[in-house]
Design a protein that fits this description.
The chain is α/β, with parallel strands linked by helices. About 30% of the residues lie in helices and about 15% in strands. The chain has 61 helices and 57 strands. A hairpin with a 7-residue loop joins β13 and β14. α35 packs across α36. The protein is elongated and about 140 Å long. The protein starts with 5 loop residues before the first helix and ends with a strand.
């Protein structure tokens, strides 16, 4: 079995009493109360029901138990005793209230009080007030020898009654020596001389229902405080209750609410369970099984009751809770009686629950009293020693005396585990035994297992019987090996399995049995009776060679305990590890206890009961008091030549002056000179450049996607759109090295520059603003962070809590939190209300050990957990990297048989020495002994390596190997690079001792220049000597004179021993030169998963993946056999040393070398000290190698056969290397790049490192020099880790699930298991499944910051902006979260940026500088008269029309090359140029923008449901269409004021229009219409910010089929729905209808307002037609030096649309302009474009249209493209003014969906997705051509754009001879130019007399086009004609009407149609040639 011994160690239960609340303590005693008397089922049933009812009662919710503890001032201290006992300290003395009436068969009868006396509670019979609160300040006269004490009355739970009692009748500090009897006085009436407590209790009106006992009712000493008032003082230590006194050690309790809490955890289940893991199953004791489990909050509150286990079905006293008036199960579960034993009542427990009330020393004066109060417990080391660990036990019957010299004789304190039934008193030498309730709790938990099934509705299943439990315990103990420690968890699993097997059929339908990790236990066919039990137990124990001894008693356990003590003193139990005492005489039940007497097991178990704080206190105490001196004295006797120090001094004197010759000269000095002189420096040393690895990037992206999903969820907990930048604060534990390391990461990641938080050249001081060390000063810095977040609502603050598993102490539920601000600091800061509620703070917890944050009460939603991804999935390497991570699982894998060199090892000779010394010094803590032994080993090894060869017998082979490699490695490198040895000494005082001793030895051996010794303390930085500082500077090319290494990473290559102290590592990273991780001193007694993995995480490492680190044969590769053969590079264990040592003793039977200890003694000092080239790790191997047979190479003869074969076979593939990857052959040393196989038959590897073995391939020789430096191997090989044997066994053995045993430990000290009835973790679980497992099966202890969070798994208990990132230690989480900050910042910027089109205006060079410039450069508005004189610029300058046909005008004399083709036809769809622009505060937004201001505007106001809208039809007739047009308006209620209705809710009559004369700055006069399609999400319709909040009328023009989706996204916008016939129409139709509707509305408004006396011309005639992609608007500010001056400067700024519209609307004579527009923005705009403020030219995208003037100019409703150019030309030809404001510009966002892109042209018949090319858009009429599903007009326009050269061959690139286009502008492609003319009478046309045209285009021409009109134009010979009509008929009519056949020649085959089916009404065209 695993050595879990320690396991219990840290178990929650391990806390001293001093740490616990009273209840906790009491609980222990719970099982035996009235054991035989409550059996009636009726009583039990009533009790169950009542408890269940109280648990389900609603009134329970409002006052959480712990808050009550702090609310009642009086109880502040006393209440601590009961974790959940709020009611009153004595819990009704456990029986008085709830049970006593039912239970004792003969209740105590009080004498009736004398007539007429006072019977009021709290007053004496004379009527005087005795209550402490009333008389605390009154002077009280007390006679000499008397003390004032406080008595408790059951009827006044909240008061103490003051009494004066003769102190001889009170106990001394140890609970001893109180005289029997009583002598006391009444302080009220002054009556003296009460000789009987019964009499006295009557006088003071205690009104008892039980026999009065002074032990039960006299509770506290009373003391005067500084103000002279009488206050409650320390507890009176009555024997049997003293363990309740909460020693001062409470102060030391590190973790919990009340410290107790901590201890309240599941008691360590079995004596061996690692503490934390310990009671895996009984977290709360047992509540989980009972009804309580549905109320986790309650159960947790009762958690302290952990000792009393579950509500055991047997006894559940119901106690009235007087505070909350709600009945509630007592925290104590089953402790049902409490009073000193009466001789006639065996079941009475002496342990009054109240005994521990208030045991918190008040003032130092009483400290000693508490410290030594422990009665049945742990070491009371003197009065000033650490607090003793004491456990309450329920005692009964005669006391048992503990012999005085027990510890001296036994060499260890026996640990007694209370089992079933009653436990007797112990008296006498109580310091020498430890009594623990863990086993009792384990039994209780297992008793209540069956209730877990009742929720499934299973019929009630009998729990496992007590007899069976005990028998199974004996079976378990019998099969434990001598070096194993019992584990509670194992025992729980055994009970669980046994119970399952016996009830398999009932259970099977409810749950599949889990895998069975333990050897089968004999199934009980018939139930075991109590009479059979002793016999069966004896039978079971008979086979174990007396390691388990059974004692059977007749009357009570007291006999058995006395017998055991007798046997111990007589030495008869020397071979016995466990004594099982059974008393089965009672008919009802058995009494039992188990004593652990094995020295090894007892020591581990008793130490495991200490909390980390107590452990440190104990060690400190032993160091301070000089107790360890005896250990030092012992060591000095070992050395053959006397004291080691004498030997050292002698060596020092002999060698002074010579010392550098052998060692130093060759390495250190030489290396420095080599380097300087430019000789070959070492190539292996290079500091890694900072770069992001693929894994880190993947994790950063996962983090980002989680943040986005929080933002995307409907809860609106995070509004990413409202943030402009990212800021952050990283909180780390208070470790100076971690702090510097984090600063370094932040600095080098460049994240501050990237986030824009700092400008260039960030200083270190600036970086410090972003990293917070959680120490005393943290609060101030954190406050400024909070203030910053409050002041910057548009910055997203990421609060990163790194190493988040550290310090989870609650600030609320903690005793010290008020007094000590450092307690619960993380909770106080990170969980404060401001952080939780700030909408701009996201908290990210980062940790390698997330388990304590994955409980039932966690704040982090499982959806917000991010786990580091696995590197392999189905064998595929997901993120190829050149480095592979080597973590815990890989280390464990290296220990499997078949791997040549395990990287995890233990040192058996060290363990043996520690065990031996443990027996010799039983009073010293093993941590002290281990440290002294290890330091002694290192000292001896240094001496051996320095030439004192006799010392090698005083060290272990492992330590010698480490030391040799440490000292010799610098000599193998030209620069003196060496390796680091990490020596982990968790306890700081011990670390200081180790440092001083090793430094002393190093100095005496003159090794100061060879390696450094560094004391790493979390509180301080790194100090190293000048010599090494100089070396580091040279290696790292550092010039700075002030430089000092501040992180361990900067010690790269430094030969050193790093003594790493501190109870927990805090995330410090270690350099790659770390070769040995010596964890032999870790506190193996605190085995919880987090603590263990945290220590092993120190060795986690990245190895180069060039090294053959294949998944299966990883370690094979680590030390490839070839490398072993050329043993030149043996700077560490790679050689035989390893084989000869740890492997041979490894407990698992592995195929490994098995040398004998003689091997280690054969080490010759000569070889080790003077190997010429530093055969560094040779160890014993050098001597051996000479003798070893050649085939074995350097290996010892004793190497296991399997291994030898593999060596021989290194040339060919071995049959199987590891069970994981059968196909892998061992790879030759990666440095032998030649690829040849290394020959294995080297006669003997040469023992000098300089020459390689002759048989090596030539390539090898080159390699050897490179690989001599220890750094070379460092990159390819993880460090070797040495563990304590106990931990090694935990880690390398697996349980039934296939996982290492360590994984099933309790995950963390601060949590407890929710139930012992839980499945095991499984090997196949992913990190996510493991998280869900812990979330289901663990609950936080009351000391945990999540404790008060919520009832079970309610989703609203999660904090929405909190994430948890977990990943293995040292894998790169810091880099990942810094990268996350960068990409989060980029994304936010991206969210606040848009891509806007950024293209230069085209055809600028075609403008002629004539007199048509607007010369009044400073005019804010155009001057109408000047403007009319400007000619119109026909040329299109908008870059989106780069591919459109050029429009010729009369003044053009363009050479054809001036307008080359800008793009090849295939480039047509190439992305247009864009620029990324930051959105300004005046931008238009799409539907993704949410901010507070525009919620109402958008219609998502929380007070309303979706805005109600009404649908209104609006009809008008239009002659050209020949029918009435019916449009529909959707008008939200909030916008109805813009419209006129016939009556409220009636017919829509018109849209209100303002007057031309209105002047208001609050609204925009022109209604804005935005036609849109396909852009319900992406269209920029939110104009709230663009209009700067001004009132405006905005109408979305949508197609009928898109109405619903637009309405969903824009519920508060007015929609104009086009008739269904326009569903497939283009933008021309929308423009056409907008304009027609607006004109019709203008008429209606004129009529309506005329009635109000307003002239028709005063009604505002303008509308705005805007694209749905206009995002921002700019204005140019011009500073012209004067009207005519040529130079002027200008700048452009972003302004609101409101500003621009109000400026335009204020133009004088505005109604004379038909169209007003603005420039399209471009970054390349030059001064010539903005110099003139106004131009008369085309306007696009955003136009202000005068519907009155343009009444007779229509948009072409058929058009899809260029309809704005077509309309501009029509407006101009109608003689109207188009004005472009050049100093306003509009930015258009690139939107990749919707718009004209939503038209796809596909084949109508086939489903084939084949693209249809434009040439197929037309066909001959009546042909078999495939018809297309697209509007005819679209096909026509697209065809002409791409293929018009087929119709107009002469026009191609012939700018001088354009195509004449009548009444319309169609795009014929960029290589053909057109000339536009209007056929309307009086229209403005260019003079065409000097033009000869190359073609004529007649598109749907109307009656204005006549034959005479066409005759005015001249055409080239061969010019072509194209006539386009709606059908073939009108085509013929047009040819006839226009007399075309006179000048044009037609052929039948020249007729075409668009490729549409007849029902789609194709367009027809006819082409002809000019004659």
């Amino acid at each position: 079995m695993i050595q879990l011994s320690e396991l219990w160690l840290s178990s929650p239960s391990s806390r001293t009493v001093s740490d616990w609340p009273k209840a906790t303590v009491r609980v222990v005693g719970m099982g035996n109360s009235y054991a035989g008397q409550l059996k009636t089922t009726r009583f039990e049933e009533v009790l169950h029901n009542s408890i269940e009812a109280s648990l389900r009662s609603n009134s329970l919710v409002p006052r959480p138990i712990f808050s009550q503890l702090y609310l009642e001032a009086e109880q502040q201290l006393s209440a601590l005793e009961g974790g959940s006992r709020v009611d009153n300290e004595e819990e009704e003395e456990e029986g008085d209230g709830g049970l006593e009436q039912n239970c004792p068969p003969n209740p105590y009868q009080m004498h009736p009080p004398p007539e007429g006396c006072c019977t009021t509670d709290g007053f004496c019979q004379a009527g005087k007030d005795l209550r402490l609160v009333s008389i605390s300040s009154e002077p009280i006269d007390i006679p000499a020898g008397f003390l004032l004490v406080g008595a408790k009355s059951p009827s006044l739970p909240d008061h103490l009654l003051v009494c004066a009692v003769d102190k001889r009748f009170l106990p001394d500090d140890n609970g001893h020596n109180a005289l029997l009897g009583f002598s006391g006085n009444c302080v009220g009436c002054g009556k003296k001389g009460f000789c009987y407590f019964t009499e006295f209790s009557n006088h003071i009106n205690l009104k008892l229902t039980t026999q009065p006992k002074k032990q039960k009712h006299l509770k506290y000493y009373l003391v005067r405080n500084a103000q002279g008032a009488l206050t409650k003082g320390p507890l009176i230590c009555w024997k049997g209750s003293e363990f309740r006194s909460r020693q001062a050690s409470m102060g030391a309790c590190s973790s919990s609410l009340f410290p107790p809490l901590d201890s309240s955890g599941p008691p360590a289940p079995f004596p061996g369970e690692p503490g934390p893991g310990t009671a895996p199953s009984a977290p709360l004791g047992a509540p989980q099984a009972g009804p309580a489990s549905e109320h986790p909050a309650l159960t947790a509150a009762l958690g302290l009751a952990v000792f009393n286990g579950k509500d055991s079905p047997k006894h559940q006293p119901l106690v009235k809770n007087r505070l909350s008036a709600v009945p509630r199960p007592s925290a104590l579960g089953i402790l049902s009686n409490s009073g000193p034993p009466k001789k006639r009542h065996k079941g009475w427990s002496p342990e009054s629950p109240s005994a521990s009330d208030g045991g918190y020393p008040q003032g130092g004066g009483h400290r000693a009293k508490y410290e030594s109060a422990g009665v049945t417990c742990m070491p009371q080391v003197g009065l000033v020693g650490p607090a003793s660990v004491t456990f309450p036990v329920v005692a009964s019957g005669e006391p048992v005396s503990v012999p005085d010299n027990l510890l001296k004789i036994c060499k260890a304190k026996p640990v007694i585990f209370k089992g079933h039934g009653n436990f007797p008193y112990l008296c006498g030498n109580l310091n020498d035994v430890v009594v623990s309730p863990l086993l009792y709790t384990c039994y209780q938990n297992s008793q209540s297992i069956s209730r877990a099934y009742e929720q499934y509705g299973a019929s009630t299943i009998q729990p496992i019987s007590e007899e069976m439990q005990l028998l199974l315990t004996v079976y378990y103990l019998v099969q434990l090996a001598a070096d194993q420690v019992p584990l509670m968890e194992d025992l729980e699993q055994i009970f669980l399995r046994s119970w399952r097997e016996s009830h398999l059929t009932e259970i099977r339908q409810y749950q599949q049995a889990p895998p069975q990790p333990f050897p089968p236990v004999p199934g009980a066919v018939a139930p075991v009776t109590s009479a059979q039990l002793p016999w069966l137990a004896g039978l079971a124990a008979s086979s174990c060679n007396d390691s388990v001894h059974i004692i059977e008693c007749t009357y009570s356990l007291a006999e058995g305990l006395s017998e055991m003590f007798r046997l111990l003193i007589e030495g008869k139990l020397a071979k016995t590890n466990y004594v099982v005492i059974i008393c089965a005489c009672r008919s009802a039940a058995i009494d039992s206890c188990i004593a652990v007497t094995g020295k090894y097991q007892a020591r581990i178990l008793s130490e495991s009961l200490l909390t980390p704080a107590e452990y440190q206190k104990e060690v400190n105490y032993e160091l301070v008091t000089g107790k360890v001196d005896s250990l030092g004295a012992f060591f000095s006797t070992l050395c053959p030549e006397g004291d080691i120090d004498i030997l050292l001094d002698k060596f020092h004197q002999e060698n002074q002056g010579l010392v550098s010759s052998s060692l130093t000269a060759s390495s250190v000095t030489k290396s420095a000179s080599l380097d300087v002189s430019g000789a070959p420096a070492c190539t292996s040393y290079h500091l890694e450049p900072h770069r992001i690895r693929p894994f880190q990037l993947a994790v950063a992206q996962k983090l980002l996607s989680h943040v986005c999903s929080i933002a995307d969820s409907s809860t609106q907990n995070l509004d990413l759109g409202s943030f402009e930048k990212v800021d952050f604060l990283i909180c780390i534990p208070p470790s100076e090295v971690t702090y510097q390391q984090t600063l370094f990461h932040v600095w080098h990641s460049g994240v501050l520059l990237e986030l824009g938080l700092e400008k260039e050249h960030v200083t270190r001081q600036r970086v410090e603003q972003y990293v917070l060390k959680l120490d005393a000063e943290a609060q101030t810095k954190f406050k400024s962070f909070l203030q910053n977040s409050f002041q910057n609502p548009h910055t997203l603050f990421v609060l990163i809590h790194d190493h988040a598993h550290w310090d989870l102490v609650s600030a609320v539920h903690n005793l010290y939190s008020q007094s000590d601000p450092s307690v619960g600091l993380v909770d106080r800061l990170l969980n404060c209300k401001e952080v939780k509620e700030a909408p701009n703070i996201v908290t990210l917890h980062v940790t390698s050990f997330p388990y304590a944050l994955q409980t039932q009460h966690t704040l982090v939603s499982p959806y917000n957990e991010i786990h580091w991804p696995a590197s392999y999935s189905d064998g595929v390497d997901l993120y190829p990297e050149n480095k592979k991570y080597f973590g815990l699982s890989e280390f464990i894998e290296s220990t499997l048989s078949g791997h040549s060199l395990p990287l995890l090892r233990y040192d058996s000779s060290f363990e043996a020495m520690v065990t031996a010394l443990g027996k010799r010094f039983p009073r010293l803590h093993s941590a002290v002994i281990r440290t002294f032994v290890l330091v002694q080993h290192y000292a001896a090894a240094m001496m051996a390596v320095s030439g004192l060869s006799q010392m090698k017998n005083y060290t272990s082979v492992e330590t010698l190997e480490i030391t040799q490699n440490l000292i010799n490695s610098p000599k193998q490198c030209p620069c003196g690079h060496g390796l680091m040895v990490l020596l982990r000494v968790p306890c700081s005082p011990l670390a200081a001792v180790a440092y001083e001793r090793l430094a002393h030895v190093r100095a005496r051996l003159a090794l100061e220049e060879h390696f450094e010794i560094i004391l790493g303390n979390p509180a301080s930085g790194i100090t190293i000597g000048k010599h090494f500082l100089k070396q580091l500077k040279v290696w790292q090319n550092i010039e700075d004179a002030e430089w000092r290494p501040q992180t361990y990473l900067e010690l790269e290559g430094l030969p050193c021993i790093l003594i790493f102290s501190g109870m927990d590592p805090h995330g410090e990273s270690l350099p790659r030169s770390l070769r040995y991780c010596d964890l032999r001193l870790i506190n193996s007694s605190c085995l919880v998963r987090t603590a263990l993995e945290q220590e092993l995480g120190l060795a986690a490492y990245f190895v180069s993946s060039e090294a053959p680190l294949e998944k299966g044969a990883r370690t094979e590769a680590l030390e490839s056999d070839a490398e072993k053969l050329s043993s030149t590079d043996n700077e560490d264990e790679e050689l035989v040393t390893e084989g000869s040592t740890s492997e041979k003793r490894s407990p698992v039977k592995r195929e490994r070398s098995c040398s004998h200890d003689s091997a280690s003694s054969s080490l010759s000092s000569k070889a080790s000290s003077s190997a010429p080239c530093g055969e560094s790790s040779a160890g014993p191997s050098q001597v051996e190698r000479a003798r070893s047979p050649p085939s074995c190479g350097p290996s010892e003869e004793a190497r296991a056969p399997g291994e030898r074969q593999r060596l021989r076979a290194a040339g060919g593939p071995p049959s199987v290397i590891s069970r994981h990857s059968p196909g892998l052959t061992p790879q030759p040393d990666p440095s032998l790049k030649s690829g040849q196989h290394v020959q294995v038959s080297a006669p003997s590897a040469s023992s000098s490192g300089s020459a390689s073995s002759p048989a090596l391939p030539a390539a090898g020789a080159l390699v050897l020099q490179a690989s001599q430096c220890s750094m070379t191997k460092a990159c390819r090989q993880p460090p070797v880790v040495f563990l304590p044997k106990l931990v090694y066994d935990m880690v390398t053995s697996t349980d039934g699930s296939g996982l290492p045993k360590a994984a099933s430990l309790l995950p963390s000290h601060s949590v407890m298991w929710a139930s012992s009835f839980r499945p095991l973790l499984s090997k196949t679980m992913t990190s996510t499944e493991q998280s869900l497992y812990y979330r289901q099966w663990t609950v936080p202890r009351p000391g945990h910051m999540d404790y008060g969070n919520r009832a079970e798994s309610r989703v609203d208990g999660f904090h929405p902006r909190r994430l948890l990132l977990s990943g293995p230690p040292q894998i790169g989480k810091t880099g990942a979260y810094l990268q996350f900050l960068s990409i989060l910042s980029r994304m936010l910027i991206r969210l606040t940026e848009v891509d806007v089109y950024d293209e230069e205006e085209i055809n600028i060079n075609l403008r002629e500088d004539s007199d048509w410039h607007y010369l009044q450069l400073s005019d804010p508005w155009p001057d109408l008269e000047l403007f009319k004189k400007l000619p119109f610029d026909y040329i299109i300058h908008d870059p989106k029309y780069e591919d459109a046909s050029l429009i010729c005008s009369h003044h053009q004399s363009v050479k054809s090359e001036d307008r080359g083709t800008h793009r090849k036809p295939e480039d047509l769809y190439v992305r247009r140029q864009t620029a990324r622009m930051r959105l300004s505060k005046f931008a238009a937004y799409n539907t993704y923008h949410h901010c507070e201001q525009c919620h109402q505007y958008m219609g998502f106001h929380p007070r309303y449901q979706l805005y109600e809208s009404t649908l209104h039809a609006f009809a008008f007739s239009y002659s050209m269409l020949g029918e009435e047009i019916q449009l529909h308006f959707i008008i939200p209620k909030s916008k109805e004021h813009h419209f006129v209705f016939s009556q409220p809710g009636g017919q829509l009559e018109s849209m209100r229009l303002p007057l031309v004369t209105d002047k208001s700055h609050e609204y925009i006069k022109s209604p804005t219409f935005t036609p849109t399609t396909g852009r319900h999400e992406h269209g920029l319709f939110n104009l709230y910010h663009a209009m700067d909040g001004a009132s405006h009328l905005h109408v979305l023009v949508v197609k009928e089929y898109e109405m619903a989706i637009y309405k969903k996204y824009w519920p508060n916008h007015i929609m104009l729905v086009l008739p269904s016939i326009f569903n497939s129409a283009g933008v021309g139709a929308a423009h056409f209808l907008i304009k027609e509707l607006s004109y019709h509305n203008l008429e209606l408004e004129r009529n309506r307002q005329e009635e109000l006396g307003i002239k028709p011309q005063d009604i505002w005639p303008f509308i705005v037609i805007s694209d749905d992609s206009c995002v921002m608007w700019n204005v140019v500010d011009v500073d012209s030096g004067g009207e005519r001056s040529r130079e002027f400067s200008w700048s452009e700024r972003n302004v609101s649309l409101k500003h621009i519209m109000q400026h335009i609307e204020a133009s004088p004579n505005i109604t004379h302009y038909a169209l007003i527009g603005m420039r399209k923005w471009s970054s390349k705009t030059g001064s010539h474009e903005v110099r003139e403020p106004f131009s008369r030219c085309h306007v696009h995208d955003f136009i202000v249209l005068n519907v009155d003037l343009t009444q007779n100019v229509q948009y072409n409703q058929n058009r899809f493209m260029c309809d704005d150019v077509d309309f501009n030309l029509r407006v101009h030809s109608a003689g109207l003014l188009l004005c472009r404001f050049n100093r306003f510009s509009v930015m258009k966002k690139q939107i990749s969906v919707g718009g004209h892109r939503s038209f796809h042209i596909t084949s109508k018949v086939s489903d084939s997705p084949m693209a249809v090319v434009p040439a197929q858009y037309i066909c001959a009429p009546d042909s078999k051509h495939t018809f297309l599903a697209a509007p005819a007009q679209l096909l026509l326009e697209k065809f002409l754009q791409h293929h018009s050269h087929r119709f107009f061959p002469l026009s191609l690139k012939n700018l001088g001879h354009p195509v004449l286009s009548v009444d319309c502008y169609l795009n014929l492609g960029s290589q053909i130019s057109v000339c536009y003319v209007s056929s309307r009478p009086h229209s403005l046309n260019i003079s065409c007399s000097d033009f000869v045209f190359s073609g004529l285009l007649l598109y749907l021409c109307d009656s204005f086009v006549g034959a005479s009109f066409l005759k005015k134009f001249h055409f080239l010979k061969g010019a072509t004609l194209c006539v386009i009509c709606q059908d073939r008929n009108s085509l013929r009519q047009t040819v006839v009407r226009l007399e075309l056949e006179d000048e044009w020649q037609f052929r039948l085959r020249d007729e075409f149609q668009t490729a549409n089916a007849k029902e789609d009404r194709p367009l027809f065209f006819l082409t002809g040639r000019h004659i």
